[in-house]
Amino acid sequence: MTGTRSAAMTSPRTRRIKGTSQVPAMIFLYILSFLVVIPFVWMISLAFTPNHEAFGSVSLIPANPTLENFGTAWIDANLGRAMFNSLLVAVAVVACNCVFSVLAGYAFALMPFPGSFGIFLGILATTAIPVSVTLIPLFLMARGIPLAGGNDILGQGGSGLLDTLVGVMLPYLILPMNIFLARQYFSTSPPELAEAARIDGASEWRIFRSVYLPLAKPLVAVVAIFSFVGVWDDFLWPLVVTNTESSQTVQLALARFLASGNIQYGPLMAGAVIATIPVVILFLFNQRAFVSGLADGSVKG
Amino acid sequence: MSTSTPSPMGEATTSPVGGVPSPPASGRRPRRWSRIQIVGLLFVLPAGLYILIFQMIPVVYGFVLSFTEYNPIRRGGPEFTGLDNYAELVGDPEFGKALLMTGRYVLQVLPATVVIALVLALLVNRPFRGVGLFRSALYLPHIVSLTVVSMVWLWMYSPSGLFNDILTRFDFSPQTWLLDADTALNAVSGMRIWKALGSNMVLLLAGLQSIPRDLYEAARVDGAGRWKTFRYVTLPGLRPMLVYVVVMDIIFLAQGFAEVYVLTKGGPLGSTTTVNFLIYTEAFQYNQFGSASAMAFVLFAFIVGFSVLSVRSLVGRQK
To answer: How far apart are CA A203 and CA A213, in angstroms?
Structure first.
């Protein structure tokens, strides 16, 4: 952060904002950015601070850095199992969204049929439904899935998909927002490609699979990231649907670790770091997709 | 794994369905669906059915439940009680307080986060070396889960955490932050303002960049100062995005849950019990699915009302 300071000051082009006020603006930006980032710096610092030192005045750079907290968190919070669960759920959710949400968005954009726009609007409207409205019905539906978890054919008698990984992934498998993003993306793809392929006798599935999908890699990246982060970071649904360690996600494992007795900030922060690493790695390699996904989903519709 | 499913399904089912109507349709019947339209429907079908079953039906199901009394432990099934749940909510001081707290929470976080995010967006909307680094750093709080950032702030607010450490270093007395009913909601709000900055900034930045350059050129030629350019070019150009940002923030903030769960568990003395937190405890600790559903629909109505109101006030000024 400090290395860019001099370079930023001598920025060659200034547009919109006139050159005179650059210095105060930059100082202001440095201060704000510092304030935004500082909690994460502390999170990492505490993760390496021996737990018995984590109370009282802590220094930003640990005097006796240790990896002990990571081991404690990994074992006491059962993070290994939780990471595995979260990853499995996330992979299934990403795969499902990349296929079905993208396919539906493609059809909405390039293969419209009578009533398709109405259906699209209906799907779009579901993005505004608060989680708490569908939470209880989804819980009952997950419990009542026929022939799962000891249920009979009518969905009675057992626990259904409660406390299973399939139950955890259930509400995220096809996210309406992704269908919206896909439709927006394919609306700007040239329809002539499909016409040409149809003349050549290609099936509709092939046209999608071999003509348009290869052109839509940025979209697939956005959909994958949106789905991954959405399911990885979510808390309320996993909290409701799981009740043992066998199916809990990593966020839940951390929350239960926090609630399990006296707060141990060292291991807790180490666990927080572990839980955050996959998302941060994804972000670092796909920054553009992260940001454009957010912006694309906004006012273009 | 699931990648292979649509291919057989798509092709196997389309050919018979698509093949049947086309030969007799040669006599030009406009009503009949073309093969492409039928395949289009089939492409939408899996997603459409899923959304219907797991998004739309739950809303209806929840609405029905809100008129019943239902304890999921006793497997007797819901009992219809008419408007009882809603009537009880009207006189329920706990629910009233939760609504009030949720409203306060939204009103405390929303303006602050939007204004700071706008300032940040303006600051990083200029070309200088390292601007990408700043944008990434400022976006960071958005991608880290609410659960995790709440835990970090839990430490910062703790009696010997960062905030009290700073205060005592400057000879101020340490504060109780989350442990005091008067300050707990403010403390949660402070965290959420910070958490919401990243996404708002990115959205507003996209909005800023969609404003045509020539408008700024024209303003400059006309001799408009910086404030006037901002007031008459930037703000109007930003309005659609601003509306979107405000509505999205209202929807998300009004559903605050994970931060409350981690930071305060709704306390002290219910001072941070948001409606969503109350719904959770009502449903999953007290097993009152009926009245919890009614609460959810009252919250839904408030969110819609708030959103419409804010869109009106933001768009209305355009004329």
So the answer is: 14
